[in-house]
Amino acid sequence: MKILVVEDEKRITSFIRKGLQYEGYAVDIAYNGDVGYQKAKDDSLDLIILDLMLPGMDGVELCRRIREEGMVTPVIMLTAKDSIDDKVKGLDAGADDYLVKPFAFKELLARVRSLLRSGDSAKTTVIKVGELELDPSSREVKREGENIDLSRKEYGLLEYMMRNSNQVLTRTMIAEHVWDYDFDSFTNTIDVYIRYLRRKVDDGYKKKYIRTIRGVGYKISDK
């Protein structure tokens, strides 16, 4: 899943980015409101973490604009201000949640997971491709009832593929959703992780779910 962080304090941005990457999320960054507004229009985003006070367009205006334009991406508003009026402004502008600085990353992560679950009911449903099952709430993966242990990045890649089963996914699409914004999709990292997944998901089974579409990318399918 892909998260945009719009925050001008680079120390906080680095702290959030490292934590989210460790949890397996792809993270894009904007250090001011104007750039954040342009990046927020990316329809591949799953969630936006947005600071209230930003250079250029502030967080309230940014949030209001994307809502007026019909974008429904969940938004968590960050601010150093703890007044009721500031919270109301953020929520009235269309933010889904509000977190006051300083905060523990554990709390931010809990709110991220909560919004990703509530923002789309499909995210809480067990995803199935043939005998392969992925449970987003527990992050458990099974094939024919047998647990499959995956690294965070392997899990993120498999979840993205299973949510888009039967669709051909290019390396660029995979890079944008599973890796960071500036990830070079022309490296062989994606191919390496596909091999890792194949060993864990397909090896030992007659039916292979992960397919290579030569010259294009990959897909997962039980057909």
Descriptive keywords:
21% strand, alpha/beta, 8 helices, 4-stranded antiparallel sheet, elongated, Arc Repressor Mutant, subunit A, 223 residues, Rossmann fold, 5-stranded parallel sheet, 12 strands, 2 domains
Describe the protein's topology.
Blueprint: E1 2-6, H1 10-22, E2 26-30, H2 33-40, E3 47-51, H3 59-68, E4 75-79, H4 84-92, E5 97-100, H5 105-119, E6 127-129, E7 132-135, E8 140-143, E9 146-147, H6 152-163, E10 169-170, H7 171-178, H8 189-201, E11 210-213, E12 217-220
Helix pairs in contact: 2-3, 6-8
Brief account:
With 223 residues, the chain is an alpha/beta fold. It has helices spanning 10-22, 33-40, 59-68, 84-92, 105-119, 152-163, 171-178, 189-201, and strands spanning 2-6, 26-30, 47-51, 75-79, 97-100, 127-129, 132-135, 140-143, 146-147, 169-170, 210-213, 217-220.
Characterization of the model:
With 223 residues, the chain is of the alpha/beta class. It has two domains: 2-120, Rossmann fold (3-Layer(aba) Sandwich); 125-220, Winged helix-like DNA-binding domain superfamily/Winged helix DNA-binding domain (Arc Repressor Mutant, subunit A). The chain has helices at 10-22, 33-40, 59-68, 84-92, 105-119, 152-163, 171-178, 189-201, and strands at residues 2-6, 26-30, 47-51, 75-79, 97-100, 127-129, 132-135, 140-143, 146-147, 169-170, 210-213, 217-220. The strands form three sheets. It has a five-stranded parallel β-sheet, sandwiched between helices. A four-stranded antiparallel β-sheet has the order 6-7-8-9, with helices on one face. Helix 2 packs parallel to helix 3 and helix 6 crosses helix 8. The radius of gyration is 19 Å and the shape is elongated.
